[in-house]
Amino acid sequence: MAETFTSGNWNEKVLQSDKPVLVDFWAEWCGPCRMIGPIVEEIAKEYDGKAVVGKLNVDENGDIAGNYGIRSIPTLLVFKGGQLVDKIVGAVPKPSITQKIDAAL
Q1: pLDDT in tens, 48-62
Q2: Which one is catalytic: 2, 30, 51, 58?
Q3: Which residues, listed in sequence order, are joined to residue 5 by a DSSP beta bridge?
Q4: Which residue, 57, 72, 73, 87, is the most exposed by fewest CB within 10 angstroms?
Q5: How many Cα atoms are found within 13 Å in the side-chain-facing hemisphere of 44?
Q6: Cα-based distances in Å from 30 to 3, 73, 81
């Protein structure tokens, strides 16, 4: 299951992770976010133990979204060693997402 990232656990779970991290920036009211939600959950199961996969609600954690210049959602960010290494904006097919994670492994 995908992790839930918040302003309170961001540093620990994302920036200090020893594995690559995929963060799905989303909101309840966002149709395309609901479309890729199940894909993100699938990826979380498939990459369990290899990468950390989670979601951050932009309405509840606007400070984090603002720090990374998130202007449209869904936006997926890939972190490695605490550094932003890749970005996907919009609802994309699963292979487009897994390719970015694989590149960070």
Answers
A1: 999 999 999 999 999
A2: 30
A3: 56
A4: 72
A5: 15
A6: 19, 7, 30
Residues in the chain: 105
Do 104 and 85 form a contact (C-beta atoms < 8 A)?
yes
Helix-then-strand count for the chain, H and E? 4, 5
Of 23, 33, 76, 78, catalytic: 33
pTM score of the predicted model: 0.97
Contact 77, 63 (CB under 8 A): no
Is 18 among the catalytic positions? no
CB 17 within 8 A of CB 98: no
Please give the domain boundaries of the chain with CATH numbers for all domains: 3-104 (3.40.30.10)
In the residue annotation, 29 being an active-site residue is answered as: no
